[in-house]
Amino acid sequence: MNNSPENGLFAKLSAVKSSLSDIYNKISSVRISKKLIIIGFVAVIFVLAMFSAVILIDESRSETDISTTDSREIDPAVLGNAELAPVEGSFVFVLTNNEKTSIHSVVKIDFSSEEERFVYEFIPANIQTNINGAVSDFSGHLASGGTNLLLTALRQHTGTEFIRYAVGDESSLMHLFQLLGDTTITIDERVSSDHNGVNFIIEEGEQLLTPDMMLKYYLYLLKDTGTNGERIIGILIDSLERLVSGTDDTKLESDFCTVLGYFDTDISAFDYSGNKELLKAIPSMNLKEKAQPVTE
Fold first, then answer.
1. Which domain range does residue 35 map to?
2. Which of 60, 129, 209, 219 could pair with 153 in a Cys bridge, judged by C-beta atoms 3.0 to 4.6 Å apart?
């Protein structure tokens, strides 16, 4: 049986129509101009039609509001930008080759905006894990089962439920560096590398690196995360700070969403709208000074 609002409304209109017919018959026995009767009928029907339309529109809006409500809870203070939304939890960032067959680095970051905690850990990509009988390192899980299987392996190894993840390849990082433009960076000592057949030299001191050279330098640092971990994290923090510094809200949102498009990630535009003020405050947090490697 169909109990829709429309059927109930039509039933009410039919009853009204029947009543109006009785009234019409009674009025007809009195000497009143037929033109006046017709005008009265048209006016009544018009009012009823308008009333019905308002009811249907209101019911339609109510149903739409219920069906499109986001199930995630949002702090009203965040929506009003009344205060910074606290963010706390573990993030994981994975960088692979462009073929997504080999992982360059896995970095886990425990972050708390309230406690001003920023603890990072580079997880060796060659660690073996057993997922449903399949024993492999992280690169193998990524190649055979994609991001979902990789995250399952990382959760099993670390015992951590990540609140957000991002998996990108060399081209993802290149797009980020291109968006930021040339980067001024201080090189502690001269770099001469032919890693993976890529030859380049960067002299000691303050250097202006193109996006292409930044990518080469970053991949060079990943050869030894134990020694270069602080510098690697520093580059990531510098990039984030430059992304959110000195831009209006419209450009910041555009750049944020553009960067998201380069990665396989569960970070979304929703995260931007809920944490916009926190993102804009990142340059004042001195994250590089607060960043610490994990200690056993």
1. 5-68
2. 129
